[in-house]
């Protein structure tokens, strides 16, 4: 048994709701790129532990991470979820409804960069931000996150290792350059405490300001 199988077996960490979402995504032939079960758990745990009441999700797919994030919200908390594809947002909406969480979520369809500019203009603030959309725009999303974060907000980002492309200096694709820039900035920005966990495809966790 490999370590991933061991963790799955020990935790049974995907309950029926999450299993159904993963199955729904597969049945619809959407890409199998939802966060892995233990990262989903980590999202719930981090939202709950941080006491977040305003969560921002960038990259929705079928609502798997959305359910995990929304489950951690404190009573009265709300989530705003940004997704390019209206079809995916509809799938997620239905899956959040089945999980009994749809009241907590507002979907904004379109390029996340545009939605983020609107949120900045409206002076919205979030105490938990999860980035998991198109990789080339991670630096753009980070800029917006700094403007939208409350002092001490938590920021998480999936795929920060980009299948190890970031580690190979020969790789000069726009995605690799963007992710290296994202990681470097998160590691060195003044007032940010951060860690890049080498879990799955790399999971960055950062506390923005407030220190
Ligand atoms: N966080 C999800 C998985 C997201 S997959 C989960 O773990 O359940 C990446 C998502 O980002 C896809 O749904 C894709 O449609 C979306 N996406 C890609 N480019 C985007 C953009 N420019 N703006 C907003 N969403 C985008
Ligand atoms: Mg991802």
Task: Characterize the structure shown.
This protein has helices at residues 3-11, 16-27, 37-50, 64-72, 86-98, 112-121, 138-148, 174-188; strands at residues 54-58, 78-83, 105-109, 126-131, 149-158, 192-197, 203-208. A 7-stranded mixed sheet has the order 3-2-1-4-5-7-6, with helices on both faces. Helix 6 packs parallel to helix 7. The model has no long low-confidence stretch (mean pLDDT 96). With 211 residues, the chain is α/β, with parallel strands linked by helices. The chain contains 8 helices and 7 strands, in the order H-H-H-E-H-E-H-E-H-E-H-E-H-E-E. It starts with a helix and ends with a strand. Strand 4, helix 7 and strand 5 form a beta-alpha-beta unit. Bound molecules: S-adenosyl-L-homocysteine and magnesium ion. S-adenosyl-L-homocysteine (SAH) is lined by residues 33-35, 59-61, 64-65, 82-85, 88, 111-112, 132-134, 137. Residues 33, 132, 158-159 line the site of magnesium ion.
């Amino acid at each position: 048994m490999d370590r991933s199988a061991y963790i799955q077996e020990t935790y049974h960490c995907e309950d029926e709701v999450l299993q159904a979402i993963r199955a729904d995504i597969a049945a619809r032939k959407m890409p199998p790129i939802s966060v892995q079960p233990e990262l989903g758990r980590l999202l719930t745990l981090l939202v709950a532990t941080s006491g977040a009441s305003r969560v921002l999700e960038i990259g929705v797919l079928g609502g798997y991470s959305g359910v995990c994030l929304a489950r951690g919200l404190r009573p009265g908390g709300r989530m705003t979820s940004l997704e390019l594809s209206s079809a995916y947002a509809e799938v997620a909406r239905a899956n959040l409804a089945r999980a009994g969480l749809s009241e907590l979520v507002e979907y904004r369809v379109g390029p996340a960069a545009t939605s983020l500019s609107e949120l900045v203009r409206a002076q919205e603030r979030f105490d938990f931000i999860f980035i998991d959309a198109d990789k080339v725009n991670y630096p753009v999303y980070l800029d917006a996150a700094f403007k939208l974060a409350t002092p001490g907000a938590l920021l998480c980002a999936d795929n920060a290792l980009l299948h190890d492309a970031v580690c190979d200096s020969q790789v000069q694709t726009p995605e690799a350059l963007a992710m290296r820039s994202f990681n470097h900035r998160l590691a060195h920005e003044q007032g940010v405490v951060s860690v890049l966990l080498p879990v799955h495809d790399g999971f960055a966790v950062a506390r923005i300001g407030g220190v």
